[in-house]
Amino acid sequence: METPTHEVEYEQMLLSRHTFLNQGGGRRTNSLMERSAYILLSRIRIQGPMSIGELSEAFGLDASTLNRQTAAAMRAGLIERIPDPEGGMARKFRLTDEGARLLDSEREGIVDILDQVMTDWSDEDIAAFAGYLRRFNHGIEAIGGRPWPRP
Asked: Within 10 A of 26 (CB to CB), how many other CB atoms are there?
């Protein structure tokens, strides 16, 4: 018997295959960064400078994975290491001006695509959809114990 939850699972699976929103596939070919860098930079922007340990806890990933991701982002000039602004021992990562610029550009590109996808939606429908997505994400975050800070 199919339930509404089965429908959500199926639609979520379909949504996850649409990489044009975050990896330059489909009609959008000018993606500026990989999905992992986009998420990493987004988290650092909203939370402020973060250490490897803080990133590991936030993402539920091991330090070696985050070391690879942060090293790639540093080589690309997207983030830099700084002393802990609060005086702690661990060095932290913060966005560079270039990282902030590219993150803003990437986000605007994704918003442009979403505007095309939802061109015939009313503002009320878009707001309702955003509310359902937020609620869905809050539920996932509650189960995983890793809330994502929001502006």
From this structure: 11
Number of neighbouring beta carbons within 10 Å of residue 135:
9
Distance CA 12, CA 143 (A): 17
Exposed, middle or buried, 1 (CB in 10 Å: 0-12/13-18/19+)? exposed
Residue with tokens 């509650």: 142
Give the H or E element holding residue 80: strand 79-82
C-beta separation of 85 from 49 below 8 A: yes
Q: What is the value of pTM for the model shown?
A: 0.85
**Positive or negative torsion for Cα 77, 84, 107, 36:** positive
* Structure-token match 């890793």, residue found: 146
11-41, pLDDT tens digit by residue?
888 888 776 555 444 444 456 688 889 999 9
